[in-house]
Design brief:
Layout lengths: L1 H18 L1 H14 L1 H4 L6 H12 L9 H4 L1 H18 L5 H23 L3 H28 L17 H18 L6 H20 L3 H17 L3 H19 L1 H8 L8 H19 L10 H6 L15 H9 L1 H25 L4 H20 L9 H23 L28
C-alpha cells in the first residue's frame, strides 16, 4: 500500500514537472527533505525520476540559462563544479569518488534550475515555505514524540539520507527554524501560520533532544539572530529560554553533563577523536594541496591510517576541512566566496529594504539566518553535499535576480510605509497577530 501510494505521488510529480516545472521543483525539494521513499521501504529511484522529468520540462526556459553566468551565486556554484570534478578524476582512488560525485552533480543540476524556473516573489515565497514546512514537520514529529514520552534522546536521525544521524538532524532542524518563523509573516492563512509556529517550536525541542552539542550552539545562534532583528530583544531571549527550559528539565543532568563537555572538548573521547581526525586531514591536504585526495570523503578515510592511529577510520566532522582535503584549495576558496557573498548580499538587502519592501526583507532574514546557522553547524559536521544548504543558496540567487530586475525597471513596490521596519517578533503568544504584509 505504501509503495503504491509512493508511485502515485512520484508519477504525479513527474507529470507536474513536465507540464509545470515550477511544481516539479517544489516536489523535488519536498521529496529530497522528507524522503517519502524511506517510509515505503523501497529503492530510491523516485527522486531521480522527478528530477529527470522536471529537467525535461525546464528546457522551455533554455533562454534563461545564460543568466546563471551573470548571477554571482550561481556562477560561483558552476565554478565550484570544476575543482570538484577534477578532484574526482584525479583522486587517489577515483572509484571511491564516483558515486558521491554523481549524487552531487544531480543535486547541483536541480539547484541551478531553481533560479531559472522561479521568477517571481510568489515563486520564491512558495519555495521557502516548502523547505520550511518539509523540515519543520520533521522537527514537529520528533519534538512531539519526545515530549509525549516525557523526554527522549534521539541518537539517530531521520531516514537514510543527509539527516540520518542525530547531529545532521539537529543542523537541518536549526536551519529550518528561521524559515518557519519568518514564513508566518509571508502568508495570510491563520491555520498555516499556526502550523509554522508549531513546526518552529517543535524543531527547537527536537534539536535539544538530539543531544547534539553543535545543534545546541546553532539553536543559541537562532535565538540571538531573532533577538537582533526583534524590537524586544531581551524579551525574545527570555521567551525562548522559558520555552527551552522544560525540555532541558525533562532530559535532566545527562543532557547538562553532555553540554558541559563544550568547555573542554578533549575530555570527551568522541570529540577528541574528531579533533585528531581534523588535524590528520590538514596534514593529508598538505600532501595533496591542489586537487585534494578525492571528492566525497571516502578517500580521506581510506588514507587516514597513514596519518592517525585509530581503531577504525572516521569522517572529518568539519565541512570546510572535508572539502579542502577532498577537492583542494581552489574548491575551498570558491566555496567560501559563494558562501560569504550570499550572507553579505542578504545582509545588505535587509539593511537597504527593511523600510521599503517587507517581503524581500523577510526572505533575506530567513535565508541569512539559515545560512549563518549552517556556517556554524558545519564546523562540527561534515556536510559538503548537504542539499538544504544549496537550496538556500539557490533561493538567495532568485532574490538577487528579483532585486536586480526591480532596480533595472526603476520601480520599487513599497510593502510597508517609510516609517515602519520589518522585525522578527519572537513572541509565540503574539504570533497569531502577525500580518502577511
Amino acid at each position: 500500500m505504501r509503495e503504491a501510494l509512493l508511485w502515485l505521488i512520484t508519477i504525479s510529480l513527474c507529470l507536474a514537472g513536465l507540464l509545470r516545472p515550477r511544481l516539479g521543483l517544489y516536489g523535488y525539494v519536498w521529496f529530497s527533505i522528507m524522503k517519502p521513499d524511506d517510509w515505503a521501504y523501497t529503492a530510491s529511484i523516485h527522486s531521480m525520476l522527478i528530477a529527470g522529468s522536471t529537467l525535461a520540462g525546464s528546457l522551455r526556459y533554455s533562454f534563461s540559462f545564460p543568466k546563471l553566468l551573470r548571477n554571482p551565486i550561481t556562477l560561483g556554484l558552476l565554478l565550484l563544479l570544476i575543482p570538484v570534478t577534477v578532484s574526482t578524476f584525479t583522486a587517489v582512488d577515483p572509484a571511491l569518488s564516483y558515486l558521491p560525485y554523481r549524487s552531487y552533480v544531480q543535486m547541483m543540476v536541480m539547484m541551478l534550475l531553481i533560479p531559472v524556473v522561479l521568477q517571481t516573489e510568489s515563486d520564491l515565497r512558495t519555495l521557502l515555505l516548502v523547505i520550511g514546512l518539509s523540515i519543520g514537520l520533521i522537527g514537529l514529529k520528533f519534538g512531539l514524540l519526545g515530549l509525549l514520552h516525557g523526554g527522549a534522546r534521539f541518537s539517530q536521525g531521520y531516514g537514510n539520507g543527509l539527516l540520518s544521524d542525530n547531529n545532521a538532524l539537529a543542523l537541518g532542524l536549526a536551519m529550518g527554524l528561521p524559515l518557519c518563523w519568518f514564513g508566518r509573516s509571508m502568508i495570510e492563512n491563520w491555520w498555516l501560520r499556526q502550523l509554522l509556529l508549531a513546526c518552529a517550536l517543535g524543531s527547537m525541542a527536537a534539536v535539544i533532544m538530539t543531544y547534539s552539542r553543535g545543534g545546541m550552539l546553532c539553536l543559541a545562534l537562532n535565538v540571538l539572530l531573532l533577538a537582533y532583528w526583534s524590537r524586544h530583544k531581551v524579551a525574545t531571549v527570555v521567551v525562548f529560554a522559558v520555552l527551552a527550559a522544560p525540555v532541558v528539565y525533562l532530559l535532566g543532568n545527562g543532557y547538562l553533563d553532555r553540554m558541559a563537555t563544550l568547555k573542554n572538548p578533549t575530555a570527551d573521547s568522541s570529540a577528541n577523536d574528531r579533533i585528531l581526525a581534523a588535524k590528520a586531514a590538514i596534514q593529508m591536504w598538505k600532501d595533496h594541496p591542489i586537487t585534494g585526495v578525492g571528492f566525497g570523503g571516502l578517500n580521506q578515510m581510506a588514507l587516514q591510517h597513514k596519518y592517525l592511529d585509530l581503531d577504525q577510520p572516521i569522517v572529518v566532522h568539519n565541512t570546510y576541512i572535508e572539502l579542502l582535503v577532498g577537492s583542494g584549495i581552489f574548491a575551498m576558496v570558491i566555496y567560501l566566496a559563494v558562501f560569504g557573498f550570499s550572507i553579505y548580499y542578504l545582509g545588505a538587502t535587509i539593511r537597504r529594504r527593511r523600510r521599503t519592501n517587507a517581503q524581500c526583507t523577510r526572505f533575506a532574514m530567513a535565508m541569512q539566518a539559515s545560512l549563518l546557522i549552517f556556517c556554524l553547524g558545519s564546523y562540527f559536521l561534515s556536510r559538503v553535499t548537504f542539499d538544504m544548504f544549496y537550496m538556500i543558496l539557490a533561493a538567495a540567487a532568485v532574490l538577487l535576480e528579483l532585486v536586480r530586475q526591480k532596480n533595472e525597471s526603476g520601480g520599487e513596490e513599497h510593502a510597508e510605509s517609510e516609517s515602519e521596519e520589518v522585525e522578527a517578533d519572537a513572541s509565540p503568544v503574539e504570533a497569531h497577530k502577525a500580518a502577511a504584509y
